[in-house]
Amino acid sequence: MKKIKSLSVLFVLFSALTLISCDTEPVDPVLTDNIDPENPGTNPGTDPGTDPGTSEGDYFPMALNNEWVFALDGVMQDPMKITGTVTVNNKSYYKINQFFSNAGNGEFTGSAVMLLRKDGGNYSVRVSVDIPVQEGMSISVSPFEYIILKDNLAVGETWTETTTQTTSYDMPESPVPLPDVVMNLTFNGKILEKGVTAVVNGVTYNDVIKMNLKQTSVIEGFGEGVPPTITNTEVWFAKNIGPIKAVSTSEGFSATNELQSYVVN
Fold it and tell me: Which residues contact 201 (CB under 8 A, 6 or more apart)?
C-alpha cells in the first residue's frame, strides 16, 4: 500500500515533491490487464496523432528487475525498480515501484501504479491510483499519461502536451454533493544537451541527453487570482543506463537526485 499525499496533485515528475509515496515492493509476477479497463482516464494516451519517430538509442532501459538507486540531497533512497509488465488499452507497459524517492506519509492510503512505456523515440509515464472507501467517502482519481523524453530530437527542439486529472468524491450521507476537482496539466519538454559527458557521484557517463520538463498545473474553479503551480525538472539520461541525475525546482523549493548504483538487464 502507498500513501497518497494529495487528492488533486498526484504526481510531479522526478522530484522530492513526488506526491505518491511507495514502499519497496517485491518483484511481481508478470501482470496482465491489472488496471481497471473501465477507468482509462480522460487522456490515457500520449501525443495523439504524432509519429514517435525512430529511437536513437535506449536512454531508459525497461526490463524486469532493472533498478536504480538514488541519493536525494545526499540521503540514500530505496531502489527504483521495474517489478512487472501491464497491458492497458492494448498498450504494453512496465510497472515501476517509485520515481527516485519516497515522499513520506500522507493522509489517505491507496494503491498507486506508475507505468513506463517506450514507443519509437518517445518515453512516457502513466500514473493511476486507487483509494479505498474511508470514513464513508469514496474517492476516484483519473489516470493520465505524458512523455518524459524524446530521444530523437535535436538540441533546442521541444514538445508540448496537455492533459487533465479529475478527482471525484462520493459521500452518500452528505446533504450537498461534492464537486469534482479538475486539474489541467501542461508539459513543455526541451532537449538541452545531447551526446555529452556527465559526471555524477564521481562516475563519468558518456552519450548523455540532458532535458528539461516544465509542468504547469492549474486547478479549475479556484479563481483567476490563483497562480498556476510550476515545476521545472532537468534530467540527465545516459544511453543504455537510464536516468542518472534529476534536479527539480518549484516555488523556491529544490531537490537533487543523483544515481548511486544500478542494475540493467
Answer: 71, 258, 259, 260
CA 242 from centroid of its chain's CA atoms: 15
Contact residues for 36 (Cβ-Cβ < 8 A; gap 6+): 130
Q: Which grid cell sits at 243?
A: 536516468
Contact predicate 70/58, CB 8 Å: no
Alpha-carbon span 234 to 116, nearest angstrom: 18
Q: How confident is the model at residue 5 (pLDDT cuts 50, 70, 90)?
A: very low
Question: Taking the chain, what is the end-to-end CA distance rounded to the nearest angstrom?
Answer: 27
Q: Considering only CA atoms, which of 77, 74, 133 is closest in space to residue 101?
A: 77
Query: Given this model, what pLDDT does residue 236 score?
Result: 97
**Coil, helix or strand for 190?**
strand
Quote the CA–CA distance of 107 and 8 in Å, as a whole number.
13
Evaluate the CA torsion angle 249, 2, 133, 95 in order and state its sign: positive
194 vs 228: CA distance, rounded Å? 30
**Spatial distance between the Cα atoms of 19 and 103, rounded to a whole number of angstroms:** 6
CB-CB contact of 80 with 100 (8 Å): yes
Q: How far apart are CA 98 and CA 18, in angstroms?
A: 9
56 contacts 152 by C-beta, under 8 angstroms: yes
Which residue type occupies 99? F
Per-residue pLDDT of 66-125, as tens digits, reads: 999 999 999 999 999 999 999 998 899 999 988 775 443 344 456 668 899 999 999 999
Supply the pLDDT for residue 224: 64
